[in-house]
Q: What sequence folds into this?
RNA sequence: AGGCUCAUAGUGUUAAUGGUAGCACGUUGGUCUCCAAAACCAAAAGUAGGGGUUCAAAUCCUCUUGGGCCUG
């Protein structure tokens, strides 16, 4: 779909849709924010962030969260709603987000999902039936130790006894998944064997931003540089002072990579390169997730290249390949 | 242009008794129902080039090319 057709497509979608939900997605640094504001203005939309990290307060630079000015009067939800020391689960996210959707509908506006966390998007679009078993730290710790002591296969075999179907789907080395599956079985029993695709409660219009891979990687590199200029290091320092490093929130991109620099273990250049690389890897995983949806309206993007500008490593790499 | 030495995937390698070219990182593809910006799986990709010895060469010999060191 071309960007110029967007308005028309949205209009015809809204005409037919009984329970409309607009989903704006794309890999990190693809420009979702700007597009979402544009759409929100077109349809009277309100935005629900589907971003597992922008949930947290105090990580605005690292997560490249939208500023108030950029919001341009469009209501945003699920942004900066908890402090990083509070663990926010998928189930919780889903409940909250669905509540917001209802409120938005009541106001006569159109709910929009905007963000890059595939799991969160899917959980709402497909109405995931998330097992109501809260993570149990003690049990997890015990299971991890077991895996360490007797090997991953051992723990996996244990899962197989409890729940053969899950065991078959989960690779033994994926200890995190194995532990969770055991946890569900031990603490509540009912498992999610019936993963049948349910019909979505929503009429969904999905828009995605599609970049040539090398250009996307360039955008990522540039964004990281900008984040550093905007004071990423100070932000991380503040977070480190207040919160435990092991918190899930602290594993965010732009945080865990900068920590070694602050501790004096690595140079800033080194940390920056790692951050860029990890962000590129993340973008790749996001794209893999999105590919499961065949009905995304991908808008092709492209920059008209400026000849000057300092070149990033990826740009140089891309250049080396003879084009044609 | 005398002597010595080195050359293994994109990168690194202090991997390979003359006998299946390995590992790490990167790259690419994939999995995913409460850590998901996480965790995990898989694949592609290499002996600088030419000759020779050998049943068999990254490995031994030789020439070429390229890098480093030493000596005028």
A:
């Amino acid at each position: 779909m071309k960007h110029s057709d967007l308005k028309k497509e949205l209009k015809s979608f809204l005409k037919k849709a009984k329970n409309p939900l607009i989903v704006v997605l794309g890999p990190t640094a693809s420009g979702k924010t700007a597009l979402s504001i544009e759409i929100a203005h077109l349809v009277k939309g309100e935005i629900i962030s589907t971003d597992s990290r922008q949930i947290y307060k105090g990580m605005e630079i690292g997560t490249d969260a939208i500023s108030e000015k950029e919001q341009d009067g469009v209501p945003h939800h699920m942004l900066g709603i908890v402090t990083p020391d509070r663990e926010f689960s998928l189930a919780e996210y889903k409940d909250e987000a669905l509540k917001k959707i209802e409120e938005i509908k009541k106001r006569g506006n159109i709910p929009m999902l905007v963000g890059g966390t595939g799991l969160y998007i899917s959980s709402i679009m497909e109405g995931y039936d998330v097992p109501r078993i809260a993570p149990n730290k003690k049990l997890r710790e015990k299971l991890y130790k077991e895996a360490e002591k007797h090997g991953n296969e051992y723990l996996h075999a244990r899962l197989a006894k409890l729940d053969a179907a899950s065991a078959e789907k989960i690779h033994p080395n994926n200890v995190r998944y194995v532990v969770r599956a055991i946890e569900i079985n031990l603490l509540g029993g009912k498992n999610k064997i019936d993963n049948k695709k349910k019909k979505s409660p929503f009429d969904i219009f999905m828009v995605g931003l599609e970049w040539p891979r090398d250009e996307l990687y360039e955008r990522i590199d540039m964004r990281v540089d900008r984040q550093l200029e905007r004071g990423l290091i100070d932000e991380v320092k503040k977070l480190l002072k207040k919160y435990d490093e092991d918190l899930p929130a602290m594993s965010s991109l732009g945080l865990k990579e900068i920590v070694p620099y602050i501790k004096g273990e690595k140079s800033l250049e080194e940390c920056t390169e790692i951050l860029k690389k990890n962000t590129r890897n993340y973008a790749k995983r996001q794209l893999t997730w999105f590919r499961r949806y065949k009905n995304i309206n991908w808008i092709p993007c492209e920059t008209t290249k400026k000849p000057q500008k300092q070149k990033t490593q990826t740009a140089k790499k891309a250049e080396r390949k003879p084009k044609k």
